[in-house]
Automatic annotation (TrEMBL):
Keywords: Developmental protein, LIM domain, Metal-binding, Zinc. CDD domains: LIM1_Isl. GO terms for molecular function: cis-regulatory region sequence-specific DNA binding; DNA-binding transcription factor activity, RNA polymerase II-specific; metal ion binding. GO terms for biological process: axonogenesis; neuron fate specification; positive regulation of transcription by RNA polymerase II. The lineage of its organism: Eukaryota, Metazoa, Chordata, Craniata, Vertebrata. The keyword Iron does not apply. Gene3D superfamilies: Cysteine Rich Protein. It comes from the Eukaryota. It is found in: Nucleus. This is ISL2 protein.
Length: 138
């Protein structure tokens, strides 16, 4: 369809003998399909990700829009092992008690207060039965 398509990158008509179709409704001049963040040319040799009509290379898409560790704020790679606490995700190495620094392992009891993970020793045992009945303590 050269001559009929409009380039999603520059808006001009695509007269070239070749065009790049990224999704069913977005077509690009070969020279216009570049990462919106770093400018790397995106062609059939590298992965292309779309967000809000803009194209991104895999590295920038992951950095900008990927899930990030709740502790160190770095993105995850596909090979990273993760730990989850409610809607927070952590690198295995970052899943540590905020008070004592002990790494929390699968099966460990912990508490999540705001963004802070606390091991059982630092958040304490559940209230005892006297406190649950209404006894006051300082």
């Amino acid at each position: 369809r050269p001559g009929l398509a409009l380039c999603a990158g520059c808006g001009g008509r695509i007269q070239d003998p070749f065009l790049l179709r990224v999704s069913p409704d977005l077509e690009w001049h070969v020279a216009c399909l570049k990462c919106a963040e770093c400018g790397q040319p995106l062609d059939e040799t590298c992965t292309c990700f779309l967000r809000d009509g803009k194209a991104y290379c895999k590295r920038d898409y992951s950095r900008l829009f990927g899930i990030k560790c709740a502790q160190c704020r770095a993105a995850f790679s596909s090979s990273d092992l993760v730990m989850r606490a409610r809607d927070h995700v952590y690198h295995l190495e970052c899943f540590r008690c905020a008070a004592c620094g002990r790494q929390l392992l699968p099966g460990d009891q912990f508490c999540l207060r705001e963004r802070d993970l606390l091991c059982r020793a630092d958040h304490g045992p559940p209230p005892d039965s006297t406190a649950a009945r209404g006894s006051r303590s300082p």
